[in-house]
Design a protein that fits this description.
Helices cover 20% and strands 20% of the residues. It is α/β, with parallel strands linked by helices. The chain has 4 domains: 68 residues, CAP Gly-rich-like domain (SH3 type barrels, Roll); 237 residues, Leucine-rich repeat, LRR (right-handed beta-alpha superhelix), CATH 3.80.10; 74 residues, no CATH class; 82 residues, Ubiquitin-like (UB roll) (Roll). The strands form 7 sheets. The chain has an 11-stranded mixed beta sheet with strand order 10-12-13-14-15-16-17-18-19-20-21, covered by helices on one side. The protein has a 5-stranded mixed beta sheet with strand order 25-24-28-26-27, covered by helices on one side. α8 links the parallel β19 and β20. The chain is elongated. The N and C termini lie far apart (69 Å).
Length: 556
């Protein structure tokens, strides 16, 4: 880049030796002669100051070391979209093509050409392109009007992440020429978006997937542009410091997947603003810092009218530490899959316990942390949960006799599904509970349609069974596979209060073998050669006198 620049470079995105920045200033910086560009770096550690020099403020930066002055000839302002495509996708001429001559007729005059076949081959190659990746190719603009449409009429999937696009207008100039565009990845482009109804937003009539992660878009700007996405199904907005400020009305109504990960300004009240998107099936909320959730439109045991189509919810890397949060998720009418990794509630020595409790508290859940919940695991989890809180249930007013069974509101609020686990009911063909319907039309638990035929916990089992307290000693056990000699012998630390059902669940996920196929037994060094079968899934390791150093045998 030479020194013949004009002031319209301000706001442009540039590349300087592989580092990206935005031009904030153009002009002279005394006492040094010549033109300078003041840039704000994407990486603030790359700069030296905040836009000031010798007491004069030339531009402002968000970070005290985010700015630098650079000479224009050190800056790369990028290339147009079509030039970048040709650099990446057009094959170089081979030796046999170079210098090849051909006679063609233009009008009535024969003309000798060189490399004519190569030009035809390149044009054919571009016209066939459907999926292109131009990540980090310094794309800054569309180029000549109509050139993209003419050269690449069949493009459907475009990745222009981490480029030098600086405004939404530049994006629409490209997209307007891609009449079949379905997928567009714009992540890591620092874009200026239109923020009022008078600004053109472009029409993306075929676009189904849009990635705007790390673009700096706000919620208001997003809704303004969304009017041009009439069939959008997936929207990725990771790391934009978004705060949801208003409810989407007449936009985003076709959305099936929304990723709001790493937007740490979002809380539960903001989520309720998007709770009525009619087709939203997947919601990704990893690392947003959420710790509480309550659906105000539904009571204990009832389903919410919010998120009516939501099937898959991701809550990884948050601050969830209360079981009341999990209880609320049971109110989501369509929820089938949940990912809840790396939360205080699910970490540490109680991770296996937490899995069982989550399964027991969310009746319709079919997949947890990408592991399918088999009917045997659900049954074991609900039985253990029923026993673990049986004493608390009785103390709160619960009773084996239905006529006297009156647990207080505090217990019901803490354990909304517990009553249903203690009464007769029916299972569907997947092993999931069948629910009743309230007078308001929301699914509810009721005495005539609860989740399993467990019955109320008996006094005897409550006195002896406390499998989830995890206060007993940890056993270090060797695990061997007598029928699979190629399987490596491993060691595991398990609490002696752990039930055989839970041990099988852990091994099932470890070995990718259904729980129903697993047979367990153990051998003690004190009695070598004598193998004891662990036949009752509801009993604990302690019940079978399994001790530290024993060997667990696993067969399938």
């Amino acid at each position: 880049m030479n020194d013949t620049l004009t002031s319209d470079v301000i706001g442009r995105r540039v590349d300087v030796n592989g580092e990206h920045a935005t031009v904030r200033f153009y002009g002279i910086v005394p006492p040094v002669a010549g033109l300078w560009l003041g840039v704000e770096w994407d990486n603030p550690e790359r700069g030296k100051h905040d836009g000031s020099h010798e007491g004069t403020v030339y531009f402002k930066c968000r970070h005290p070391t985010g700015g630098s002055f650079v000479r224009p000839n050190k800056v790369n302002f990028g290339v147009d979209f079509l030039t970048a495509i040709k650099k990446r996708y057009v094959l170089e001429d081979g030796p046999e093509e170079a210098g090849k001559e051909q006679i063609v007729t233009i009008g009535n005059k024969p003309v000798e050409t060189i490399g004519f076949d190569s030009i035809i081959k390149q044009q054919s190659q571009l016209s066939k392109l459907q999926d292109i990746s131009l990540r980090n190719c310094a794309v800054s603009c569309a180029g000549d009007k109509g050139a993209i449409a003419k050269a690449c009429p069949n493009i459907r999937n475009v990745d222009v992440s981490r480029n030098l696009l600086s405004s939404w207008d530049e994006v629409t100039d490209i997209a307007d020429q891609l009449t079949h565009l379905e997928v567009l990845n714009l992540s890591e482009n620092k874009l200026r978006f239109p923020s009022d109804s008078l600004s053109p937003t472009g029409r993306f009539t075929t676009l189904k997937v849009l990635v705007l992660s790390r673009t700096g878009v706000t919620w208001a700007e997003l809704l303004q542009c969304a009017a041009g996405w009439p069939v959008l199904e997936e929207l990725y907005l990771e790391s934009n410091s978004i705060s949801i400020s208003e409810r989407p009305i007449d936009v985003l109504q076709t959305l099936k997947l929304l990723d709001l990960s790493s937007n740490r300004l979002i809380d539960e009240n903001q989520l309720f603003l998007i709770a009525y998107l009619p087709r939203l099936e997947q919601l990704i909320l990893s690392d947003i810092g959420i710790s509480s959730l309550h659906f105000p439109d539904s009571g204990i045991g009832c389903k919410s009218s919010m998120f009516p189509s939501l099937q898959y919810l991701v809550l990884n890397d948050n601050r969830i530490s209360q079981w009341s949060f999990i209880n609320e998720l049971d109110k989501l009418p369509s929820l089938q899959a949940l990912s809840c990794l790396r939360n205080p509630l699910t970490e540490g020595s109680g991770a296996e316990t937490a899995r069982q409790f989550i399964i027991a508290r969310i009746g319709q859940l079919q997949t947890l942390n990408k592991c399918k919940i088999l009917p045997e695991e659900r049954r074991g989890a609900e039985l253990d949960y029923r026993k673990a809180f049986g004493n608390a249930w009785k103390k709160a007013g619960g009773h084996q006799d239905p006529a006297q069974n009156r647990p207080n509101e505090e217990f019901l609020a803490a354990h909304p599904r517990y009553q249903s686990l203690c009464l007769s009911a029916h299972w569907d063909f997947r092993g999931n509970p069948v629910h009743g319907v309230s007078q308001e039309g929301r699914a509810c638990f009721s005495p005539c349609a609860t989740s399993a035929e467990y019955g109320a916990p008996e006094d005897g089992e409550l006195k002896t069974q406390q499998p989830f307290l995890l206060k007993n000693q940890l056993l270090t056990l060797k695990i061997k596979y007598p029928n699979k000699l190629d399987e490596k012998i491993i060691e595991k630390q398990l609490p002696d209060s752990m039930t055989i059902q839970k041990v099988k669940g852990l091994l099932s996920r470890l070995l990718k073998i259904p729980v129903s196929d697993l047979l367990l037994s153990y051998e003690s060094p004190k009695m070598p050669g004598r193998e004891i079968e662990l036949e009752n899934d509801q009993q604990s390791l302690q019940f079978y006198s399994v001790e530290n150093g024993d060997c667990l045998f696993v067969r399938w």
